[in-house]
């Protein structure tokens, strides 16, 4: 039982909760911090056949099961230059976003409480994550932990595929 409680608490910290607190990765309400709880707050605890404990949050927001690129519109971001975003599939736990850059454009330095993995689909970028800066090209992947400052400069026109957990609720147009 202690193992399940620990796993639920850890998962809540890593995945976050949805106590109507947009863009917040963790919740400090008693439902999420009380270690005496025997159930997972805002979700379900499952132990797999191979002994792994999996915490799944309840789903309240989601895209369609099939998302077609041609049906999505590019949205201009506030970043310097020509940077466009296209939100693809998402639910409360996960989001995928395509981001298109023209050479010379920037993804301005910022941070957020989400875990972010970026796949470089095309182009070339100078990326800064924390105090480290590197050049990345098609096929490369970048891992950004919560609250680390990161940003990029586009050296050659390109597209990035960003995934976030939990989803970036501010990216969903109401």
Please tell me about this protein's structure.
The structure is a single chain. With 174 residues, the chain is mainly beta. The protein has two domains: 2-57, no CATH class; 69-171, Jelly Rolls. 10% of the residues lie in helices and 42% in strands. The chain has two helices and ten strands, in the order ααββββββββββ. The chain has helices spanning 2-15, 30-33, and strands at 43-47, 53-57, 75-76, 83-90, 95-101, 106-110, 115-129, 132-137, 141-144, 150-165. A hairpin with a 4-residue loop joins strand 4 (83-90) and strand 5. Mean pLDDT is 81; it is low at 1-26 and 28-38.
Low-confidence stretches: 1-26, 28-38
From the spread of the alpha carbons, the general shape counts as: globular
- Structural class given helices, strands, pairing? mainly beta
Radius of gyration over all CA atoms, rounded: 18 Å
Tell me the β content.
Answer: 35-45%
CATH architecture of the largest domain: Sandwich
Find the CATH superfamily of the largest domain.
Answer: Jelly Rolls
Task: Bin the helical content.
Answer: 10-25%
Total number of helical segments? Answer: 2
Mean pLDDT: 81
